[in-house]
Amino acid sequence: MLTAIACAWILLVIGDFLSTFVYHIPEHVFGSLHLRTHHSYKKNFRHYAILTLHSQVLLDGILGALPYGIVAFFLWSYSPVGVISGLIFGQFHVWWRHTSILGWQTPPIVNLACQVLFITTPERHWLHHHKTSQGFGDIFTFFELPASAWLRFLRLLKVQRRWEGEKVKGVFFR
Ligand SMILES: [Zn+2]
Ligand SMILES: [Zn+2]
Prior knowledge:
Blueprint: H1 2-30, H2 33-38, H3 45-50, H4 55-75, H5 80-97, H6 108-117, H7 122-130, H8 144-172
Helix pairs in contact: 1-4, 1-5, 1-8
The structure holds zinc ion (2 copies).
The site of one zinc ion (ZN) has 5 residues, from α7.
C-alpha cells in the first residue's frame, strides 16, 4: 500500500516536473504550438481538457503527457497499482483544472486542502491561461518559483541567440 502511494506520488511529481521544465516552459519560449492550441481564446472545456481531433491540439496534449508515460514505464515494476492510480489522478486533474471555463469555483475547504498539499486549483491554472508567465506547475504549485527562474533564463538565452545570429548575419552580409 505504501509503495503504491509512493509510486503514484513520484509519478505525478516527476511527471509534472519533466512536463513543465522540458516541454511546457521551453515551448512557451521557443515554440508556438502550445500557445496556439492551449492558450487560444474562446475555446471550450472539451478543447482544453479532453482534446479535440485536431492534430495540433492532440500533439500538444501528447507531448505534455509523454513525461508521465516515461515515468510510468520506469515505475511499473515497483507498483502497477500505484502507477495506474497516479495516471488516473493525473487525468482527473487535467479535467478538474479546466473546469473554470464551466463556471466552477473551488469551495474554500478544497482550496485550503490544495494550499496545504501544494496542488494547483482550477483558478490558479486559469491564471496561467491568461497570464502565460505565471501559474506554472500543472499539478503542483511548488514548481512555480523554479519555473519562473527557468522561464527567465530561457528567455535570456533566446535573446542572446538572436543577438548572436544578428552578429553572424552582420559579418556575412556586410
Ligand atoms: Zn490548461
Ligand atoms: Zn502554457
